[in-house]
Design brief:
The protein is an all-beta fold. The strands form 3 sheets. The protein has a 4-stranded antiparallel β-sheet with strand order 1-8-3-6, with no helix packed on it. The longest helix is centred in the first third of the chain and has 5 residues. The C terminus is likely disordered.
Length: 168
């Protein structure tokens, strides 16, 4: 992770204001197993508690599961790498959102190196620029590449000089 290339989430007003990424359902469907490695790096401006959640929508409605919960100390990078099992309802879903929540609601942080790695049999490649924050599936190299302004990676309500806020 690199502070210059990391994403800075600030001007938050609710616990749900944090990074979010829409995953490609066919990438999860292509996994041989729902056992994956989830990892990310985070450096908050103050002590925070965060959680990562996965929301899947299928013919039976929306289902949400917490993938990770943890605490982080102010001004220190901490990298997390955990072996997790994705829920069965992730396969066959037509919409999958990976999103982060954090407390206190107004806390700011830098985040980088977000990935979900699993084994699959449907390789996908991209020729776009290398992102600092990605979602990948090993072997099923399903990477969602952001645009240069990260607009394809995050939902953004507004933007100011050198900062993003209102992320959902």
């Amino acid at each position: 992770h690199d502070s210059q290339q990391s994403f800075y989430a600030d001007h938050r007003t609710e616990s749900t204001n944090g990074p979010a990424q829409f995953l490609t359902p066919s990438d999860l469907d292509g996994l041989d197993s729902l056992d994956v490695t989830f990892q990310f790096s985070l450096m908050p401006d103050e002590d925070v508690s965060v959680s990562w959640k996965l929301m899947c929508e299928n013919e039976n409605g929306k289902h949400t599961v917490t993938l990770y919960e943890g605490s982080f100390s102010a001004n220190k990078w901490k990298s997390v790498k955990e072996e997790i099992t994705l829920p069965n309802f992730a396969q066959g879903a037509f919409q999958i959102d990976l999103f982060m929540e954090g407390l206190p609601e107004t806390a700011s942080w830098r985040i980088d190196d977000i990935s979900i790695d699993g084994e699959g049999n449907k390789p996908t490649t991209s020729t776009e620029a290398e992102p600092s924050t990605t979602t990948t599936m090993k072997t099923t190299t399903a990477t969602t590449m952001p645009g240069l302004d990260c607009s394809s990676l995050f939902s953004i309500e507004s933007e100011e000089d050198d900062s993003w806020h209102g992320l959902i």
